[in-house]
Amino acid sequence: ILLDPEHRIRYANRATLEFLKKEEREVLGRTCHEVFHHSPVPCYEREGREKEECGLLIALEGKEYSSVHYHRINEKNRYFHIRYIPFKEKKGNVPFIIEMVREITETYKLNEEKRILDQFKDLLQDTYTLEELFERLSLLAKRALKAQGCAIFLYDPKKRTLRLANHRYVNPSIVSHIEEIGLDECVTSYAIESGKPFVAETLKEMPESRLKPLLKQAGIGQIISIPIKLGNTVTGVYNITYKEERYYDKEDTRFFSLLMEIINRVYQRINHTNEIKKHGRRLNRLFDVVKALNQSTELNEKFERICDAVKEILNSEIAGIFLYDHDKSHLTLQALSGIGLD
């Protein structure tokens, strides 16, 4: 297309008209932001994600410029490489700008996804505790995924509830309302029950519950839920929120599945390491008990040591030892350790 300094379209080729599905008379004389973005103001004056740097301003200074523009077309995110070429007169004036456009949606999305996945891999690779993992996931939600907010929940399958485990980037106005939520109160239930990421494009997909109006009031337009798993068992969920509706759509589920794999590999490594440490502590405690038993001569003292050790190693509340009498008709308590001894 050919543009003048006022952003008005002076010429559009056939490919442009076919893309716009318009006649020439519907395009010529109108501004580019009006025709392409249905906006009364230029890209650089818009709000949120729609705000973009306009190469036209740079081209009017006599410089060529290239950039990537985002468009929302038929409820889909599409990306275009745009090249601005100034048409300069001898005196240096720029009466027209040639704008050349090529769609790069698939290439752009693949590059963006790779960039995000690489950022997650790099930041999570030297993570060794769950607290550190949750902190870094919250940071990556903002830095890599450019999310408005992030909440991490741990799942209790017996109660069918979610407990808030990290709320660094949760809107303060809703923290107290989501410290514990029922599984049927939010779209997270789809991710937990299926074991797969769930992309809720709008809050219309939220079940009717006390949370829905609170989330709207907090300015949340979209929620993406990624299961946190140990093997095939879902133990939590990584929730990402955006102000805009459909920042991501359901076609992006494949990408979030790849992201889930990266997160859960780290999560499982940390849990496996913790289990090894726990077993190591139990073994060391067991060796200490065996050593103490060998040094003890009193039977009652040995029983007490065994009860204390069993309670500690098995993380039980009470441990006791009973012995049969001679005819094995009765049991007699010999030692007891723990709470509620009365």
Name the descriptors.
Beta-Lactamase, single chain, 9 helices, 13 strands, 27% strand, six-stranded antiparallel sheet, alpha+beta, five-stranded antiparallel sheet, 3 domains, 342 residues
Summary?
With 342 residues, the protein is α+β, with helices and mostly antiparallel strands. The chain contains 9 helices and 13 strands. The protein has 3 domains: 102 residues, PAS domain (Beta-Lactamase, 2-Layer Sandwich); 166 residues, Beta-Lactamase (2-Layer Sandwich), CATH 3.30.450; 64 residues, no CATH class.
Task: Explain what the structure shows.
It contains nine helices and 13 strands. With 342 residues, the protein is α+β, with helices and mostly antiparallel strands. It has three domains: 102 residues, PAS domain (Beta-Lactamase, 2-Layer Sandwich); 166 residues, GAF domain (Beta-Lactamase, 2-Layer Sandwich); 64 residues, no CATH class. The protein has a six-stranded antiparallel β-sheet, sandwiched between helices. A five-stranded antiparallel β-sheet has the order 2-1-5-4-3. It has a two-stranded antiparallel ribbon with strand order 12-13. The model has no long low-confidence stretch (mean pLDDT 89).
**SS field, number of helical segments:** 9
Task: Identify low-pLDDT runs.
Answer: none
Distance between the termini: 89 Å
Summed over residues and divided by their number, the pLDDT gives a mean of: 89
The biggest sheet amounts to:
6 strands, antiparallel
**Major β-sheet strand ordering:** 8-7-6-11-10-9
CATH class of the largest domain: Alpha Beta
Shape: elongated
- The CATH topology label of the largest domain is Beta-Lactamase
CATH architecture of the largest domain: 2-Layer Sandwich
Helix content: 25-40%
Instruction: Output the structural class.
Output: alpha+beta
**SSE sequence, one letter per element:** EEHHHEEEHHEEEHEHEEHHEE
Please count the beta strands (DSSP E, at least 2 residues each): 13
- Give the CATH superfamily of the largest domain: GAF domain
Total individual domains: 3
Percentage of residues in strands: 25-35%
Radius of gyration: 31 Å
